[in-house]
Amino acid sequence: MEFYRIQLVAIVSLVLLFPSSTIGWGDDGHAIVCKIAQSRLSAAAAEAVENLLPKYAGKELEKVCSWADHVKFIFPWSSALHYIDTPDSLCSYEYSRDCKDENGVNGRCVAGAINNYTNQLQSYGSDTQYNLTQALLFLSHFMGDIHQPLHVGFTSDRGGNTIDVHWFTRKQNLHHVWDANIIETAEGRFYDSNIDEFINAIQQNITNEWSDQVADWEACSGNKTTCPDIYASESIQAACQYAYKGVSEDSVLGDDYFLSRLPTVNLRLAQGGVRLAATLNRIFG
Ligand SMILES: *[C@@H]1O[C@H](CO)[C@@H](O)[C@H](O)[C@H]1NC(C)=O
Ligand SMILES: *[C@@H]1O[C@H](CO)[C@@H](O)[C@H](O)[C@H]1NC(C)=O
Ligand SMILES: *[C@@H]1O[C@H](CO)[C@@H](O)[C@H](O)[C@H]1NC(C)=O
Ligand SMILES: *[C@@H]1O[C@H](CO)[C@@H](O)[C@H](O)[C@H]1NC(C)=O
C-alpha cells in the first residue's frame, strides 16, 4: 500500500514536471487502440485481461493504456522499447538490422518488446516468474506505438522529433503532430471533442468499410502469436508516404496536410486495436 502511494506521488510529480513528454500516440491514441481491442476479445481473453488489470482501471484497459509512458521515468530501461530507428531515407525495416537500442543491444525496440511481453503473457495460468500485469500494460501500449508511423522513423531526426513545424499556427514537432495533434484536431472538428464518437466512427469502418481486410490484419503467418515485423514495416512505409512527405524544417501544416493524412491515422488506430485483440485472443486461447 505504502509502495503504491510512493509510486503514485512519484508518477504525479513527474507528470507535472514533464507535462509535454511526447512518446507514443498521445493518451487519446492509446485509449482508442485499447478500447477497440477490448471490445473484440474472446470470452477467455476478456476474463484474463480483467484478472490482470490493476484494480484502479475499473476493468477498462483504455484507462491504463498510457501506463508505459508514465513509467519511463521509474523504469528507464523501458524507454528504448517504444520505437524503432531505421536508416535515414531507406523507408524499410528489418528486425536484425534495426531492432536494437542506442547501445546496439539486439531486440531492444518496440518489435522486440511486443515479442517479449507476448511470450511472458503465454505463461498465464501457470506458476510464472513474470509480472503479467506489467506485461499486459506494456503489450497494450506498444501495440499502439508500433502502429504510429513515426515510431518507426528515421534515426537522425528521431522519428520526426527534431523536425520543427507549425501545426496550423502553433509551434510543434512532426512526431508530436502524429502522436496527438491530428487526432485532437479530428476530435474537435468532426466529433464534438468526444473521443467515444471518434471511436464509434472507427468501429463502424472496421465493420463496414474495412470488413474485407480485417482478417488480413489479424493474420500472422506460420502460426505466430503476433507479427510486429509486419506492423513495423507498414509504419515506416506510411511514414515515408505520408508523415515525412512534403515536410521540412519550419513547414506550416494546415488543412491540406491534416485532411490528407487523417485517413492514415484512422487506419493505423483501427489496425492497432484489431491486432491487439487478435494477439490477446491467441495468447489466452
Ligand atoms: C522483456 O521484459 C523484461 C521484464 O519487463 C524486461 O526487463 C526486458 O528489458 C524486456 N526486454 C524487451 C526487449 O522487451
Ligand atoms: C506488478 O506490477 C504492478 C504494476 O507496476 C504492481 O502494481 C504490482 O505490485 C506488481 N505485482 C507484483 C506481484 O510485484
Ligand atoms: C470511415 O470511412 C469513410 C468512407 O471511406 C470515410 O469518409 C471516413 O472518414 C472514415 N472514418 C473513419 C473514422 O475512419
Ligand atoms: C500451424 O499449426 C498447426 C496445428 O498445430 C499445424 O498443423 C500446422 O502445420 C502449422 N502451420 C505452420 C505453417 O507452421
Report what the structure shows:
There is one protein chain. It contains twelve helices and five strands. The chain has 285 residues and is mostly helical. It has one domain (2-284): P1 Nuclease (Orthogonal Bundle). Helices cover 54% and strands 6% of the residues. Strands 4-3-5 form a three-stranded mixed sheet. The longest helix is centred in the C-terminal third of the chain and has 30 residues, at 255-284. The two termini are 33 Å apart. The model is unreliable at 1-6 and 11-23 (pLDDT under 50). The radius of gyration is 18 Å and the shape is globular.
CATH class: Mainly Alpha
Helix percent band: 40-55%
Biggest sheet details = 3 strands, mixed
Number of strands: 5
**What's the architecture in CATH terms?**
Orthogonal Bundle
Mean pLDDT: 93
Catalytic activity: Endonucleolytic cleavage to 5'-phosphomononucleotide and 5'-phosphooligonucleotide end-products
Signal peptide: 1-24
EC number: 3.1.30.1
Family: Belongs to the nuclease type I family.
Keywords:
P1 Nuclease, binds 2-acetamido-2-deoxy-beta-D-glucopyranose, 285 residues, 6% strand, 3-stranded mixed beta sheet, metal-binding, two-stranded parallel sheet, mainly alpha, disordered N terminus
